[in-house]
Each structure stands twice: as C-alpha cells, then as structure tokens.
Structures
1.
Amino acid sequence: MPPDSGVWRALLTRHELFAGLTDGQSLALRQLAELFLHEKNLEQVAGARLNESQRLLLAALACLPILELGLDAYDHWETVILYPGKFTPGQSEVDEVGVVHPPKPRVGEAWPHGPVILSWRDVERDLAGDWDYPMNVVIHEMCHQLDGHRGAFDGMPALPAGIDPALWIREFSAALVALRRAVDHHQESFLDPYAGESPAEFFAVAGETFFVAPELLKEGYPGVYQLLTQYFRQDPLARIDAGELG
Ligand SMILES: [Zn+2]
C-alpha cells in the first residue's frame, strides 16, 4: 500500500540529501520509488528484513539520481541483494601483478547487468553522516549501474545529445589525474581517495559526492560538477540554497 503523503514527507525531511526538493520533485520521486519497488527484485538475505518505510527509503535513495532520467535508465538490471551488514564475495581477487588476495568484506557491489549488492548497516551509517569522506553507498552503486548502461564500467554513462563526450573525458580525466597527484603527495582530499582507482570509481564517487556534499564537489572540481548537473538534470547545490532562502 502506498504510504500517505505525511509518511513520505517525514521520510524526506529526516534526511538532508533530499533537502530543497519542490513539491513536484517530491511527488515524482515518490512515484519513481514505488515503481522501483514494484519492478525490481529486492532479495533480502542473511537475515536482512526491512520494514515498509525502510524499503521506501532504500528505493528513494536509489531513485534520486534518476529523478529526471526515469526508471528506463535502470532497465538493464533488476535485482538488489541486501545483506544486514558487510558481506564477503566468494571469489578471491587477483591484482594487476597477479597476486591473489582473499576476498575482503564489502559494503556494496554492482554488476553490469545486476545485481546490486548492499549492506543495510552501511546504508544507514552513510545517512547518519558517519564517514571520513562524503559517502552514500546506494547512490555510489547506482552510479555504477548508470555507467554500465552501455555495457562497460568506464566512467562514461549514456550521455544526452547536449553533452560532448570529448569534454566529458577531458574534465573527468583531468580531475582523476589531479586526485591521484594529491594522493601521491599525501595532500588532503575532500574526495574519497578510492576514486583514484579507475575512471569508473571516479564517476561513482563523484556521483555520490554530487548528491551528498555538492558544495565540496563544485568547489574542488567545478567542471565535473557542471557536467553532472547536465547529466543528472539536477543541481543539488542550487536546490539546497533555494530551500534555505525559501
Ligand atoms: Zn565503486
């Protein structure tokens, strides 16, 4: 049963990253979230069990990046696997020089055609702001899925006609190089240094930061911020500023 608007409003006002949504955006997000829960499989494993409002919160987080893109942006995958806490992948990882590492516990994972795997405890931890760097594991994994829409995790999602792919590659590559340089020189970074792993991780980390701490991303990488406003067709910083004025 869809929640009444009081339940939905309370859910949105409890979490800062929904701040400043207009009534129209709030309604659109609610409809998207309900559609998401209807169309995607939510497999709760290892004892995870969300109540109705937690399910709706998870769906609202997953749908925030596609608020202006629509659920079609997720049409290439359908399953979310939810663990109560961190989970350990079954396979060992082999690094670039061939050394085998035993699997480490993870908070989230995305596969090109699904599933998306999440730790509910870490979803809640991120919402509480309990992090060293701005983080939201749900939005991070959803950005991977958007990135993978064309079949590869390469840091470039399906771009609308208005965005020049060459400009995208230039801006994101320059930001990735700058981040790696800062990390190599042990300089402070507002962005999780994990973003330096690859263009795919940079896009996912930039994407979560765009929604969670837009002021930091805009200040640190204005070109990347600008492209993300065009891609997501949202400007979270302008939204927060307008909400504070209003
Ligand atoms: Zn990632």
2.
Amino acid sequence: MITLFHRPKTRSSRFIFLLEELGAPYEIKIVNTLTRDGTGAVDPANPHPHGKVPAISDNGEIVFESPAIALYLTDKFPKNGLGPLAGQPGRGTYLSLLAYYTGVLEPAFMSKFMNVEVPVGTAGWVAVEKAIPFIVQTLARGPYILGEKFSAADVLYGTTFAMFGASPMLPKSSVIEAYVKRCLERPAYARAQEKDNG
Ligand SMILES: N[C@@H](CCC(=O)N[C@@H](CS)C(=O)NCC(=O)O)C(=O)O
C-alpha cells in the first residue's frame, strides 16, 4: 500500500493522477506545509526532509522529489505501461526527461518568476526562452512527451504547464496548450481532482 503525503492543490495533486493511472493501491494522508502567505507549518507527520509535498511511503520505504516518485511508481506498477522499464526502448528518454523536469524546467520557470537572469556557462539550467522551444521540439514527435504513449513524464509536464502555462511571463505555445488539454482530458485526471481534498 502506497501512502501519499499530500496537500490539496499542490505538486502532490499530480501523484493522485499518476496513482489513478497506474491502478495502484494507495491512501492519501493530508499534511500541513509552509505556504507563501506565511501560514502553515512543517508537519512532523510528513517524511519529506524539508516538509514539502509530495512524498510517499511504500510500507515504510520513503521516496521524495517528484521525478523519483514517478520513477519508483512506474517501476513498481508496470502493468499499465506508464514508463519504460530498464532495458526497454525509451528508458533513456524517460530518465532524461524526468531529470530535465526537476533540474532544468522548474529552475527555468522559477528564475523567470523571480526575475533572476540565468548565468550562461555556470547555471545547471537554462532560461525559459531556451527550455520552451526544446519542449515544443520534443512534442513535435508527440502527441506525448515520450512520443506515442502517455507516461508518468506527462503527468509531471502536463500538470506543470497547466499550473504555470497561463503566466504572461512565459512564452506562449499553441503546441503546449494542446498538449496540456490532451493530458488533462484523461479520466484519471478527473478522478484525481475529485480526490484532491482527501
Ligand atoms: N522539488 C519538489 C518540490 C516540492 C514543493 O515545492 N512542493 C510545495 C507544494 S507545491 C511545498 O511543499 N511547499 C512547502 C514548502 O516549500 O515548505 C518536488 O518536485 O517534489
């Protein structure tokens, strides 16, 4: 049984989406976290080292950070083919895009929102003006980020673009807008939305 440590309408919401896609047995444990408006607090019940969500426990085995959780879950619950397994074609792209999500895309968004110039040649990520064309180019072979098949990487990318994509600070892309729609139209997303409050 997977326990998802979750706060509604946050980055942990997408793991309800993924767990629904996987058909995995899970329970949701709502935890408190710090919030931007200064309310909230780190919840001692949350195993994430910084009190953030998501985190999961698989019978006591703790996994935190979104790409690690996505990979752990698709490896553990392979039935619905939500991520290429070790040795399968596409595994390298899957790992690369999971790492790119957290190591490049999120910092690119945050740099933009914080109005921080990305230092060329030293930062480990790129400006959003470089990241978005890469995503658009990757989606060209689509309809999903790994190509033909929907995967856990789409759960991360689709929901992230849904969350940040409307910002006037980000370059607009009809390819990404259509992609987000495609990801959010899935029945598992609707089920996850219904369960978001626990
Ligand atoms: N790198 C983490 C980020 C998690 C994250 O920042 N979650 C936010 C909610 S969307 C949070 O828990 N914020 C509370 C805090 O920063 O203490 C991941 O992708 O899993």
